[in-house]
Design brief:
The complex is a heterodimer of chains A (509) and B (412).
Chain A (H helix, E strand, L loop, with lengths): L7 E7 L3 H12 L4 E4 L11 E4 L2 E4 L13 H9 L7 E3 L6 E5 L4 E4 L3 H11 L4 H16 L17 H4 L3 H8 L3 H7 L15 H12 L3 E3 L4 H13 L3 E3 L4 E6 L5 E6 L3 E10 L3 H8 L6 H9 L5 E9 L10 E5 L18 E5 L12 E8 L22 H21 L3 H4 E7 L1 H8 L30 E3 L8 H13 L5 H10 L1
Parallel strand pairs in A: 1-2, 1-12, 2-9, 6-14, 12-18
Antiparallel strand pairs in A: 3-4, 5-8, 6-7, 10-11, 11-12, 13-16, 13-17, 14-15, 15-16
Chain B lengths: L1 E8 L3 H12 L4 E4 L16 H8 L3 H5 L4 E3 L1 E6 L2 E6 L11 E3 L2 H14 L3 E3 L3 E6 L5 E6 L5 E11 L6 H5 L3 E3 L5 E9 L11 E6 L4 E7 L4 E9 H21 L17 E4 L3 E3 L3 E2 L2 E3 L14 H20 L6 H25 L1 H6 L4 E2 H11 L9 H4 L1 H20 L1
Parallel strand pairs in B: 1-2, 1-10, 2-7, 4-13, 10-19
Antiparallel strand pairs in B: 3-6, 4-5, 8-9, 9-10, 11-17, 12-15, 12-16, 13-14, 14-15, 18-19
Helix pairs in contact in B: 1-4, 1-7, 2-7, 7-8, 8-12
The chains are: A alpha/beta (509), B alpha/beta (412).
The complex binds flavin-adenine dinucleotide (2 copies).
The site of one flavin-adenine dinucleotide has 38 residues of chain B, from helix 1, strand 8 and helix 7.
Chain lengths: 509, 412
């Protein structure tokens, strides 16, 4: 056989977020030749961690669900060959999340449906019917999503309108007149950047069910998912390259992509191409003229979920005890209103989490506080660009902006943990711009394309595109989050691998 | 007369690797080295492949402890064009980094580590004459005090580098087919080096691919800067204590004033006509390794890696020989070493014809092709699964032609 210079891969995957890595893992295990191209100096997209002053911070994984034995993510991770290599810590059985209000009242979410129900009943003894119905509905809805139940069905995995049209806020409100219970049930809606008028109940249901089926933290950071995934990919002969930003593509006469072009002038040939990058950025990369106007317009007009302001504080040694649960704090009366904030009262809603660091064990090394922030707030500095690999300078007023915002978050935090300021060694933060630069989307959106119960079909994006050998994967396809993105990768791969056999492999893993 | 199993001539990389390896196998080894160490030597940029040889010879840890400048790749430039290779991105599964070293320090480290293993390393012992036979070899050498000594060995490994002891004594040298070139160099202060910029070696090609300039940053803030060109050009640059060399590196616009006001740590030195080959690499009772075999050209920093590769292989063959096995020196040694040299020969030729530059400076370059070339540049020239190794003699001109055609079509 003649060895030719260069190489045409079976699959060229653009982006090493979990979606890209999961596709690579599946396809490489099936014996295809696979290459993953990542623009950053670190792989993993939102799975990246960074370190400052010896502390490790997660950018986009604080905790995951569905890791109890036999649950969906447990099986998926086992199939990927990474389950037994991950260092994970189960969160408190009786409170993995705490919904906390301005009046200081705290409501625990317990793991497992029965435990969850009975815990809620202690706060709301009169609401047994509402709580029962709520849980039953979650299970009913989740049953309509075959892959989440490790089943195969239907053609394209697009969901049916009866399910996707139900609005989360409205449905929960219909269950009970008890305002507090409504707020408690929707209290962790930061997990999906819930918007009262738009967020579909299925999004809420899939995520709640997942966390109720085994909530875990990653010991010493979530980047281990990416690291372990990359190991198995390499073991199967797949390749992963960093510092490879895809900027355009070449086509043959049949309109198929022959190769992608990187920023540094390198090109990579492939038979099939999978983009793990946001669909509207994917259109920019692969050329507007290659897509139909209707498609382009629809994709580019899709609203993205809001961005975030993420504060990381590190503690003086042994001053703050590790919390084996998260807190969702609401300073306003309606848990759905924090996203639509007023400058004066910001931040009204935020998520508090202490990463589990083996070195410091019983004490927390640091804390992450995540709240909403519109990309417009940092838009004036948006022409600057900065990552560790490409350090740039942003104006001093941007630094000032961050310092002010950090101070406001810490002030709020004092209300939850009086005296915490004394224990803090260092504070730093990530803004919408930080996320934009690291992930390469347009606006630092938290979870990508926003799902909408009013027009569910519009916000569902097919893995196939008009370009015959270009496919999509990642959080914008199925659902965001570790589980949602994993599912999206399977859906993408169903175009190339027999789905019954593949799902069987997951089950047998 | 003193009798040992093996005498190694020269304590450079080839000699120390060979000696350390054989000592590890239990042989009685003596090195005779003409100079007193530390001594200056040229050849400061290593290739990742040599890490494997150092490791196998048991010398890697000693070098690691010196914290030399890490080298993770190499950059080539011509005018505005730039192409950077990173060894982490290569076709062959190999080392992703190596070092840039002042050879005085590097070679001393190797020599000391070799001595620590129990090899007798005798400095200031210049080998003068050698008599070889099937079983007994005698060497005559002069020590520091001017006295002449004799030593007897079962086998000789000649790693005398540019000294070319056995090629000279046994008339084994063969002229090189390359245009006679030369190099002029010095070590400079490099205060304009930035934190962020890569500290890897970089090379600028100029004079229509006939000349080039190297910059090899060291860990102590100094940088080695050398110019390579036709012999006549180097002679000119070297006149009056390297006056033109100094002006050139201060003014050469592609260097953007990096060495504008840099102080030279020593007056520029030059070396001419270093390319040379051999008629054969072995004979009754001896084998040649390192630069005493063939040296092509410094462009791809391959010298030390060939020295360690051939040093190691010559030691392995010597061990077989001493164990009484019949060694096929032609096939298992010379052809292997020559095979690697031939790969580099194609790349050196490609550099001076400009085909290599056409490929790496192309507007677009296939990443896999680049990775395959990168493995050659990392020294993995024995990996026959790499088409850029296997078809080294034809692949560069063919590919350059295709690129030129494509780019001229694109320009219309
Ligand atoms: C603050 C925050 C907290 C979160 N917390 C959790 C949590 O606790 N639990 C949970 O399950 N989920 C959480 N998520 C969601 C989860 O992290 C994401 O949904 C998921 O990681 C997204 O994966 P993805 O595959 O879609 O791709 P992404 O992670 O978006 O990765 C895309 C990749 O493509 C690369 N790329 C972009 N452009 C190019 C280009 N041109 N060429 C090459 N590469 C390119 C990017 O650099 C990036 O690496 C959180 C998200 C955020 C933002
Ligand atoms: C301009 C130029 C630039 C170069 N740049 C590079 C580079 O960047 N990277 C690279 O890898 N290579 C480079 N080289 C090549 C490199 O210098 C040699 O390939 C390398 O030093 C060879 O190692 P060696 O062990 O064979 O010999 P040497 O390092 O030359 O060691 C031989 C030793 O033998 C001793 N010796 C000589 N004669 C006698 C005698 N009669 N008796 C006893 N001892 C004796 C010598 O004193 C010397 O110490 C360059 C060469 C040139 C000319």
């Amino acid at each position: 056989m003649q060895t030719s210079p260069g190489k045409e891969y079976d699959f060229v995957i653009i982006g090493s977020g979990l979606g890209g890595l999961a596709c690579a893992n599946i396809l490489a295990s099936e014996g295809f030749s696979v290459v993953v191209l990542e623009k950053n100096h670190q792989i993993g997209g939102h799975l990246q961690v960074y370190s400052r002053d010896k502390s490790i911070y997660d950018t986009g994984v604080h905790y995951v669900g569905s890791l109890n034995e036999g649950e969906n993510l447990f099986q998926f991770f086992r199939y990927f060959g990474i389950l037994d290599k991950l260092k994970i810590k189960k969160m408190d059985e009786d409170r993995f999340d705490v919904i906390r209000f301005d009046d200081g009242c705290e409501y625990n979410y317990a793991q497992g449906f029965d435990n969850f129900k009975s815990t809620l009943l202690t706060y709301f003894p009169e609401e047994e019917a509402a709580i029962e119905t709520y849980c039953a509905k979650i299970l009913e809805i989740c049953n309509k999503f075959p892959l989440y139940n490790l089943k195969v069905s239907g053609e394209d995995y697009q969901m049916d309108g009866d399910v996707t049209g139900i609005n989360a806020h409205d449905y929960i409100a219909s269950l009970t007149e008890n305002i507090r219970l409504r707020n408690v049930l929707a209290g962790s809606n930061l997990l999906y950047a819930g918007v009262k008028e738009k967020t579909p109940f299925y999004v809420h249901a899939l995520i709640m069910k997942s966390y109720l089926s085994g909530a875990y933290k990653f010991i010493d950071g979530g980047s281990q998912i990416a690291i372990q995934m990359s190991r198995t990919i390499r073991q199967h002969g797949g390749k992963i390259f960093k510092h490879k930003k895809v900027v355009s593509a070449h086509y043959n006469d049949a309109g198929e992509i022959t190769d992608v072009v990187l920023e540094n002038g390198e090109t990579v040939k492939g038979k099939q191409f999978i983009s793990n990058v946001h669909p509207s950025v994917t259109i920019d990369i692969f050329g507007h003229e290659r897509f139909l106007n209707v498609y382009k317009n629809r994709i580019q007009s899709l609203e993205n979920s809001i961005s975030t302001f993420l504060v990381h504080v590190s503690f003086h040694e042994n001053t703050f005890e590790y919390l084996n649960y998260n807190i969702y704090q609401h300073h306003n009366d309606d848990v759905w209103s924090g996203i639509d904030y007023e400058q004066e009262s910001w931040p009204q809603t935020y998520f508090i989490c202490t990463p589990y660091i083996s070195r410091t064990g019983k004490y927390a090394d640091s804390m992450s506080i995540m709240t909403y922030m519109n990309a417009e707030e940092t838009a004036q500095w948006s022409s600057s660009f900065k990552t560790v690999a490409e350090p740039g300078k942003r104006e001093a007023d941007y630094e000032q902006f961050k310092i002010e915002k950090e101070a406001r978050v810490i002030k709020r935090l004092e209300e939850v943990f009086p005296g915490i300021s004394e224990k803090i060694k260092m504070v730093h933060s990530a803004t919408p711009l930080t996320f934009r630069d690291y992930i390469g989307n347009r606006d630092g959106s938290l979870y990508g394309v926003m799902k909408n119960s009013n027009s569910p079909a519009r916000t569902q994006i097919n893995t196939k595109t008009r370009i015959p050998n270009l496919h999509l994967t990642g959080q914008n396809i199925s659902l965001h989050g570790i589980l949602g993105v994993t599912v999206s990768a399977f859906i993408t791969c169903f175009s190339f691998v027999d789905k019954d056999k593949l799902v069987q492999k997951v089950k047998n893993a | 007369m003193k009798k040992v199993d093996v005498v190694v001539i020269g304590a450079g990389p080839a000699g120390t690797v060979a000696a350390s390896y054989l000592k590890k196998q239990g042989y009685d080894v003596t090195i005779l080295e003409k100079e007193k160490f530390p001594r200056f030597q040229i050849g400061e940029s290593l290739l990742p492949c040599c890490m494997e040889h150092l490791e196998e010879a048991g010398l890697l840890e000693a070098v690691k402890a010196r914290n030399f400048q890490k080298k993770t790749g190499a950059a080539f430039m011509r005018g505005e064009k730039r192409c950077e290779f990173f060894f982490s991105e290569q076709f062959t599964d190999g080392w992703a980094w190596t070092w840039q070293v002042k050879r005085a320090d590097f070679d001393s480290t190797l020599a000391e580590a070799t001595r620590a293993k129990g090899v007798e390393v005798n400095f200031e012992c210049e080998v003068l004459s050698v008599t070889c036979s099937a079983t007994v070899q005698t060497l005559e050498y002069k020590s520091a005090d001017g006295n002449i000594h004799n030593i007897e060995a079962r086998f000789i490994i000649d790693s005398s580098g540019y000294g070319r002891v056995l090629p000279r004594l046994f008339d084994l040298s063969k002229p090189s087919s390359f245009t006679p070139r030369g190099a002029i160099f010095s070590h400079l202060e490099d205060i304009n080096r930035t934190e962020e910029a890569s500290n890897n070696i970089f090379v600028h090609s100029f004079d229509n691919n006939r000349s080039w300039i190297w910059a090899i940053p060291f860990s102590d803030g100094l940088t080695s800067v050398g110019i390579v060109g036709d012999k006549e050009k180097i002679i000119e640059l070297a006149e009056n204590d390297g006056e033109q060399y100094k002006t050139f590196i201060r003014e050469f616009e592609d260097l953007n004033g990096r060495f504008k006001n840099s102080e030279l740590k020593f007056e520029p030195r030059h070396i001419l006509g270093y390319s040379i080959g051999v008629k054969k690499m072995f004979g009754e009772g001896f084998v040649l390794s390192g630069n005493s075999t063939e040296f092509l050209d410094p462009i791809f920093s391959s010298g030390v890696t060939f020295a360690t590769a051939s040093g190691l292989l010559s030691a392995k063959m010597t061990q077989k020989h001493l164990q009484g096995e019949i060694v096929n020196w032609q096939k298992d040694y010379e052809e292997v070493v020559q095979g690697g040299i031939n790969v580099f020969r194609s790349y050196v030729s490609g550099w001076y014809t400009g085909d290599f530059q056409t490929i790496v400076f192309a507007k677009e370059i296939d990443m896999e092709i680049k990775n395959q070339i990168c493995s050659v540049l990392a020294g993995y020239v024995w990996d026959q699964s790499n088409p850029f190794v296997k078809k080294h003699d034809t692949i560069l001109p063919t590919l350059a032609k295709v690129i030129k055609m494509k780019e001229s079509r694109g320009a219309e």
